[in-house]
């Protein structure tokens, strides 16, 4: 039996961890699986959620501490590693400070883990905006550092569209898979499983119906104005493209986000579930004039109904929105296990095959900027 001891930084409530715990590959000679060794995050509610659902009998495995003060050398040995380093500085809706922001440099703590433990493989996750931060230079710097960490890793980087893998949500994330170079194997991106047969928002939320006593299913109170505004917004529309009476329109003259008071289209995957934001960003039901409950949002993230989030309603909303969809994580991690086990599986070519292509992409971005600036 080949069981990988997994460590996590920036673990959140445990979406990736849940997918990893479900991942399993059986060959004629051996069983490949994952066991959690430790997990770290600084958010107390997220840590409480992780403990409650994933290691209730071993709560000490979750270390609630700022990564800046975490003593990596004192952590238990691992041979697998995962980190969804905070994406605030790379998000298209953030200030895009990139590697120079508060959160951008946090990936270096993942590099420190790789240098110290030299695990057989790792998985790093971030928003799609990472590829264009600082005209691609940040992306290349991160890849260079990960590639040369420890004794060296062979990287496979791909922009995953989770709806293509059965997640009922258009969630696009960059995942970097690294396998120790000395192992002599290369990870291949698993082929999509649901193109043309996407799981819709209606299917996710209504089939089966959410039990009335399900946890984290409290309704959000809506003002009369919001309720009335929503009645003028059709499924799939938002506050900007719907025919809303003048008295109910939003008085915003700057950026107009497409997700503001956007109602779900029941016949399509949901738009991206987010973890923060003010009024109008809570994701709205296609039929009822209201925001989704956290349990409905969790369904769109593929968390099971018995996965209980800890904390306040807004705290739970943040956890759900920031998490990696467990079902998507399971597919990708099982592909890693198959790679190591020598088990074939359908795969596709990654968007960035090697550093030469990445370097070419960066140079083209620089040329485009110069052309736009001076041409």
Structure in words:
There is one protein chain. The protein has 375 residues and is an alpha/beta fold. It has a domain of 246 residues: Rossmann fold (3-Layer(aba) Sandwich). 29% of the residues lie in helices and 15% in strands. The protein has 10 helices and 10 strands. Strands 1, 2, 3, 4, 5, 6, 7 and 8 form an 8-stranded mixed β-sheet that branches. Strands 9-10 form a two-stranded antiparallel sheet. Strand 5, helix 3 and strand 6 form a beta-alpha-beta unit. Helix 1 crosses helix 9 and helix 4 packs antiparallel against helix 10. The longest helix has 20 residues. The radius of gyration is 21 Å and the shape is globular. 44% of the residues are buried. The C terminus is likely disordered.
State the order of secondary-structure elements, H for helix, E for strand: EHEEHEEHEHEEEHHHHHEH
- Which structural class is indicated by helix and strand composition? alpha/beta
Question: Residue ranges: pLDDT <50 for 5 or more in a row?
Answer: 88-103, 362-375
How many strand units? 10
Major sheet size, sense and barrel closure: 8 strands, mixed
Percent helix range: 25-40%
CATH homologous superfamily (4th level) name of the domain at 2-196 and 324-374: Vaccinia Virus protein VP39
């Amino acid at each position: 039996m080949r069981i990988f001891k997994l460590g996590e930084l920036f673990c959140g409530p445990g979406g990736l961890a849940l997918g990893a715990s479900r991942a399993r590959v059986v060959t004629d000679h051996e069983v490949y699986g994952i066991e959690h060794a430790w997990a770290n995050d600084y958010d107390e509610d997220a840590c409480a959620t992780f403990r409650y659902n994933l290691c209730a009998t071993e709560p000490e495995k979750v270390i609630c501490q700022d990564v800046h003060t975490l003593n990596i050398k004192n952590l238990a040995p691992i041979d697998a590693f995962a980190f969804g380093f905070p994406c605030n500085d790379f998000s298209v809706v953030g200030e895009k400070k990139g590697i120079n922001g508060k959160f951008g440099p946090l990936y270096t703590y993942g590099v420190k883990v790789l240098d110290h433990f030299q695990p057989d493989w790792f998985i790093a996750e971030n928003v799609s905006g990472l590829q264009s931060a600082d005209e691609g230079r940040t992306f290349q710097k991160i890849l260079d550092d990960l590639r040369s960490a420890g004794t060296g890793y062979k990287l496979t980087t791909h922009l995953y569209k989770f709806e293509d893998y059965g997640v009922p949500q258009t969630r696009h994330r960059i995942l970097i898979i690294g396998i120790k170079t000395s192992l002599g194997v290369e990870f291949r991106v698993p082929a999509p499983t649901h193109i043309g047969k996407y799981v819709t928002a209606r299917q996710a939320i209504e089939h089966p119906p959410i039990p009335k006593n399900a946890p984290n299913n409290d309704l959000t109170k809506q003002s009369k104005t919001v309720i009335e505004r929503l009645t003028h917004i059709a499924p799939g529309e938002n506050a900007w493209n719907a025919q809303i009476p003048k008295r109910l329109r939003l008085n915003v003259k700057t950026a107009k986000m497409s997700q503001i008071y956007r109602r779900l289209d029941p016949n399509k995957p949901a738009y991206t579930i987010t973890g923060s934001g003010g009024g109008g960003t809570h994701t709205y039901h296609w039929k009822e004039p209201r925001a989704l409950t956290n349990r409905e949002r969790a369904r769109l993230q593929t968390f099971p109904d018995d996965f209980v989030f800890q904390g306040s309603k807004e705290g739970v909303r943040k956890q759900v929105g920031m998490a990696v969809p467990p079902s998507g994580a399971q597919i990708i991690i099982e592909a890693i296990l198959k790679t190591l086990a020598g088990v074939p599986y359908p795969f596709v070519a990654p968007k960035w095959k090697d550093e030469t292509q990445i370097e070419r992409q960066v140079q083209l971005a620089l040329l485009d900027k110069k052309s736009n600036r001076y041409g």
